[in-house]
User: Fold this.
Amino acid sequence: MSDVSFVRTEMLPEKAPPVTSAGAIGWMRENLFSGWFNTALTLVSLVVILYVLSAIVPWVLSPTWSGTSLNECREMLAAAGHNGGHGGACWGVIRERWIQLLFGFYPSELYWRPIAAFILLAVALAPILFSDKVPGKLIWFSAAYPFIFPWLLWGGTVWGPIAAAAGFGIGFVVYRILSDAVSSLAGMIGGLVAALIWWLALSGLAVSALESILPIGIEAVESRKFGGFMLSITIGIVAIACSLPLGVVLALGRQSDLLIVKYLCVGFIEFIRGVPLITLLFVASTLLNIFMPPGTNFDIILRVLIMVTLFASAYMAEVIRGGLAALPKGQYEGADSLGLDYWQSQRLIIMPQALKISIPGIVSTFIGVFKDTTLVSIIGLLDPLGLSNAIRADANWNGIVWELYGFIALLFFVFCFGMSRYSMYLERKLQTGHR
Amino acid sequence: MLLYDTRYRSATIQVIALIFFMLLAAWLINNTAQNLAELGKPIDFGFFSEPASYDINQRLLDYNSRDTHLRAALIGLLNTLVVAVLGCATATILGVIIGVLRLSHNWLIGRLMTVYVEMFRNVPVLLWIVFIMAILIETLPAPRAFRGEDPAASMLLGDTVALTNRGVYIPEPLFSRSLGDVHMLGGSGLRFDISLDLILLLVVLGGGLWVSRRIKRRADRIQESTGVRPTTWYLRLGVIVVPLAIVLTVLGFHLGYPALKGFNFQGGTHLRNSLIALWLALSLYTAAFVAEIVRSGIMAISKGQTEAASALGLRSNRIMSLVILPQALRVIVPPLISQYLNLTKNSSLAIAVGYMDITGTLGGITMNQTGRELECVLLLMLVYLVISLSISTVMNWYNESVKLKER
Amino acid sequence: MKKSVFFGALTVAGLAAGAAAAGTMDDVKARGKLNCGVTTGLVGFAAPDANGEWNGFDVAVCRAVAAAVLGDQNAVEFVPTTGKTRFTALASGEIDMLARNTTWTFSRDVDLKFEFVGVNYYDGQGFMVPKSLGVSSAKELDGATVCIQTGTTTELNLADFFRSNNISYEPVPIETNAEAQQQYLAGACDVYTTDASGLAATRATFETPGDHVILPEIISKEPLGPLVRHGDNEWGDIARWSLNALIAAEEYGVTSANIEELAKGTNNPEINRLLGTEGTLGEMLGLDKEWAKRAIAANGNYGEIFAKNIGENTPVGLARGLNAQWTNGGLLYAPPFR
Assistant:
């Protein structure tokens, strides 16, 4: 008896999935309309999106780019058939004022300087942020950058920043000599004292002497000319850069075993974190001159920079403290077992790792400070928001609202969003899992 | 030398630090004293008892322009607290909803919430405050629009709530047989009234809650010993609602509705749009941060927890409330505290929309009119410091109580 | 004296550490620039244009003083100040003079230790309402919502006015004129109150100015003028007489068009003394002979400055009113140059 039962020898070809679960429809069923609740949510959000877009899009698409005053815009809108006062945006104000919103009153022939400063900033940051992709020698440029940045923005003689940098060199040399001859502690104290003496007493004389021998410099620009986004970015960058060393000191102080030092640091950090930035700006605008010796008078931007730096340093200290706390205890013990003293272990083992872990936190502190710079408009500085008020005081543009706010919001968004995306990328990259 | 002897080194360093700190403080104080003497403005808080001479619209206590600067500052302080409390509550609720929705499987909702979070996080809060104020002003109808035979706008919810671009008018509770008020600290700048009606209601409500708790405890005990839980919800609801309803009827409770009279709506409670704009902006802005905190808190709970809970046969909302949230809370609370602190500090931007908080009164008009910058700014900082420290104390205490108790 | 000081790595060229107690005039001359405080922006009075050049009525006063002292009307640093920061900026020496529509009051003059050097605009607080409201007097505003610009004397005047007339109102304090205008136009307040000049300037920029009326009541006196610090009388004199020179020039018919010709000498000794062809008025001030000539030539006399920035042919469109010369029934009355 022969078995004639059929045995299939080849596989059936795969059937296409049913129309309802494949392609666009399947995707929509899966992701948008699974269940009544999700369907309702989807429909509601579609309605919201359509409503918002229908309000915004016709307003944005308005043919007023060439308008030179609000009244002209209104005429152009009426001619183009838009209805009423809110029928369309008046983009003429942006065309006329966008450069001012970016650079404030910075002399227009010198715009290349802030642009160069910010491009070079990216170059200087590259060895720190993309350490695997750029040559290591670039770190020397990063070290020099803190002196190039203010020189490019404020201008003046080239000897100023060189003398400032020389202070660090002098301090370092004294430190090396003394620490070899006496002890590292004496070296540190000696280096600090020597640098301070240089900065406070000698550098001014040296600069004027060198200036009279070899006057090299670029045109000086007073900080009052700063405005718009340039002001916001400058305040943000200077505050973060200066607050980093302060933050490290405060964080170490807070972790320290020395009670008085610890409580001084805790007191400072909690005080700054406990008051709003606006009150610190009030201090900058009204009180800082009272706290200084009689007769001292420095300009409002510098005062704001000082207060914002103090503000940022308290937050920075907390970020770095988080980084220190995240380091495994073994790192501290390992450093101790190698026989390193406190400063050596901090410099060689703890800080490099703690700072690396803290970079995302530092970036978000920077974003926060950058956003908070809008507050300086309340004390009368012409940041983008302050400028928007000044622009609206021009008889041509009196009555403009949304265009300026929209433009400012867009620029802030682009900047902060880019930074936060970058910080997320960094966070992923830094998660190398060595815990 | 003291520095080289390990026995004395730390003490020496601390003494040096202390001396430096004291020198710095002395230097600052000395400078200040010299400068003030030169300006001829010695520190003097006497201006606090002078009449303030300006009016404040949104206020919790009674106030008029003849009251002192001290009272104006107090009104401002209360306004700060009002917007901070309202903002924190709304931001938490919104933030939790948005954070959960961001994890939704619905693609559109997930994306929409991402857009929301990024939009609010990456634009300065000051800009949002100004923006939302402008939106309120431009889109809501003016009270004039409610007038006439065929008004362009009408009141909501059966003529009880009016949304105008001057603010929101809602019904106010009134008592026709009121017990009256107790005036505290009468006449002084810090005077305030306590409504006996409110106290009575609170006492009755508290009593009801206490009895209801007792009933719940009893039900728990019965369940533990017999395994069967008696149905008590109607009893528990009854002991709260019935006495409350009786007291309200005795006091003659009714609602006072806003009505358009003259230039404005009269009657009802008026929430100015400066308050609403600030409240909305602060809560929407902070909600974006809270949403991120909630999202990462939920994501930090391992999937095994959900699976184990469903293996035990718990329903999904029970899993959320009994397993996931209590654990996520431990991750969520510490960063939430700092968001509350940020919101409170950001409320100082009220000045941009003309909401009279403490920065607007003490640090604003009072400072302008009296020219006492030093006193006003230092006091302002002190007030904020006290508020911040109290919030973090309370929240840290709460954090301790939800913390994982390691045994 | 200007020297660079280093704060850590931060070099700031704009940092001038010098003794502010020395004469302001010496400071200004050494600096080569006049630091003049202005508003952050008020239509017609001070606003930066697209090139960052400041223009306006108050700005012109700063320019006249700069021209008189430094010989260059562009040697001015304009420091934008808010209602809150203006007095500290002046008291701390950050600015040399403040020309920011500031009302001359007793307490500012005496208690805050400033010196008002004159009045460049006589103003008063007024009310603007939409015509459709049908209000013809401020006394009919019982229960109205009033938008006020804060940081000024306005809110105090308003509180006093409503209190003394025993009527109620709802104040809406607002930081800037632009925002107040927006709220008023949207109907978020029934009334907008600020200085009458500001009301006129604001109304002029409306889409339909005719729909709004300015009520007849002027509830306060607001003499607005430039001010300097107490105690530096030489500097105060320069600011005072620069302003007076502008006013006197209009009275005597000296304009930016004919000033060159008149400076050659005229039959009117008063003009000669003003323009420095006779007498030694400039030296008495510690300046040169032609100080007033330069101040006037910078932007013209008071009348020309008024007409150019806020006069009837500008968008602001203010009539001279109280600000006419005393010979025309106004209050402008420059003391004699003698």
User: Anything to note?
Assistant: DSSP finds 16 helices and two strands in chain A. Strands of chain A lie at 156-157, 217-218. Residues 21-60 of chain A form one domain. The longest strand of chain A covers residues 156-157.
